[in-house]
Amino acid sequence: MKIEAKSGSVAWKSPSNIAIVKYWGKYGNQLPANPSLSFTLSKSITFTSVDFDVDPKRKELELDFAFEGAPAPKFETKIRSYFSKNSADFPYLNHLKLSIASENSFPHSAGIASSASSMSALALCMGSIESRMFGGFADKKQFRTRASHLARLASGSAARSVYGGLVCWGESEAVADSSNYYAVPVNEEIDEVFTTFQDAILIVDSGQKSVSSSLGHKLMVGHPYAEMRYFVARNHVEQLKEIMQSGDVKAFGKILENEALALHGLMMNSDPSFILMKPNTLKIIELVRQIRETEKMPWYFTLDAGPNVHLMYPLEEANRAEKLVKEVLMPFTENNQVIFDHVGKGPEMIKE
Known about the structure:
By secondary structure, this protein is α+β, with helices and mostly antiparallel strands. The protein has 9 helices and 14 strands. The protein has helices at about 75-85, 115-135, 140-155, 190-195, 215-220, 225-245, 250-270, 280-295, 320-330, and strands at about 5-20, 25, 30, 35-55, 60-65, 70, 95-105, 165-170, 185, 200, 300-305, 310-315, 340, 350.
């Protein structure tokens, strides 16, 4: 591998995603115990720019990191650890000087897990730098596969944010070319209703979680229900492929909610047990079910590994849903925080 002196700047914006079939449990270096499916969002975005300088004589990585215009030592330490842990994937790293600047379109304290958007944005920037250093990739698919692989090493869910729409990460018989090492898009033959699906994110609690996702994944080792969970998740991916091709919103919603409750059930049954839902999480779920019955509203909830509720519904119901959210559900959020988002087209390069 020949290293030549070079410098420049790259920038990407990359969105977060919400898992439909949850990834919970891993092995090896960030490999999933079961396949997962997610919708990439549109408005919940991280913007990351990287100024880079390549010097063949440099012997050690030089790095500085700023978040929303200010030094962020904690985040910088995490990025250094990511590079160090995965040095085999970055054999050129010690010849680089990197100045990384990042910011979110959503408040950092909004309770949205930003690792998917931030680490996918960084991985895409690193892919662009590699392209500049070594003469490019064969095609867009090869570039995105490389970026998804690099994102996975930092955050499993970040592997999915490299693509837009519906995305699968993890080996599944239902999804062609699926892999544990990178994600793949699954948008062919999906009914139009799911390409514009809406996601109202209700922020119940923006505080730091009592148990991190990393620890939660570790607690799946030896979990009494682990193997059944992985079996169910594989079946759900297969079922959803057919459901989403047929446009069956009700069947989709049933699995969406089952996955959310199963995720939190696994937390409650782990050793040690922990609960991330809050009282208002349960109140919102009760109201969503009640309104679905009384108003015939086709909306369905899901949760990530935290207390906040993602409320999903078709685009044609957006006006009615937003009105009900503001009138009925918003009082149970923290400081009336709701982000109205929707399925997006994926990351975009904003500077090369």
